[in-house]
Design brief:
The chain contains 14 helices and no strands. With 234 residues, it is mainly alpha-helical.
């Protein structure tokens, strides 16, 4: 399957674009908080096993999306290059920060087992509203994920690799999730980005090795491509 690093990068990027958003879509379905009490200290206590599963799935979805964002930069090597190199790293930072907040889930569950829902919320708010937590982990970094990826996909569209509807669907899905209370209505909002990003993932997997390599800079003095590198190490 992997003839060289180019094949590995193409396949891994395509797989991540499918798997990462799919994990997020499945997480919201299995999340007890989606179907139960909107207070996670209560709903997580109703089904601790599923509560842990959804936290892990969200965590790995966000981490893998960060890696997938780097894969998208490859198809922006010929057009929107500077745009991609600015928005791409910011998107990665956003998703890594988003992943870190998942550690509050087991804390909330633990507090909920030992306090009333009101006490749990008060303690959690005091913890999360500390300046170091707000400015070190939340603001503005979280928005780099929710809005960074749709903006990055606009660059992918401008580079000619994606249809116009891909960034639009992702933007609508993530944007709507910010104004609608977390619950069953969130499910289609998470499914929409999974469909759009999965479409790009399948497109990458169907690319030939030659099509993928064509995005590398052209061979020139001082510039290395997979083929030129192979020739010098053969």
């Amino acid at each position: 399957m992997f003839r060289d690093s180019a094949d590995f990068r193409r396949v891994s990027s395509g797989v991540l674009l499918i798997v990462a958003p799919l994990l997020q879509a499945i997480a919201v379905i299995v999340d007890p908080g989606t179907w139960g009490d909107d207070r996670e200290s209560v709903s997580f206590g109703d089904n601790p096993a599923l509560a842990q599963v959804q936290s892990v799935m969200y965590h790995w979805s966000y981490l893998l999306t960060a890696v997938a964002a780097l894969g998208l930069l490859h198809v922006m090597r010929r057009r929107a290059v500077v745009f991609g190199h600015i928005v791409g790293p910011l998107t990665v930072i956003g998703y890594i920060s988003l992943s870190g907040l998942l550690l509050t889930d087991p804390v909330e569950w633990w507090l909920g087992q030992r306090n009333t829902p009101e006490q749990t919320q008060r303690i959690l708010d005091e913890m999360l509203n500390l300046p170091g937590v707000v400015f070190g982990f939340q603001m503005p970094w979280l928005f780099f994920a929710l809005f960074g990826l749709p903006v990055l996909l606009i660059g992918v569209w401008r580079a000619g690799f994606a249809h116009w509807w891909v960034p639009l669907v992702v933007l609508i899905g993530y944007g709507a999730s910010l104004v609608v209370p977390y619950g069953p209505a969130t499910i289609p909002m998470w499914i929409a980005p999974a469909v759009a990003l999965g479409h790009l993932g399948v497109k990458m997997l169907r690319m030939s090795r030659e099509e993928w390599i064509s995005y590398y800079p052209t061979a020139a003095p001082g510039r290395t491509t997979p083929d030129s590198y192979a020739n010098t190490t053969a």
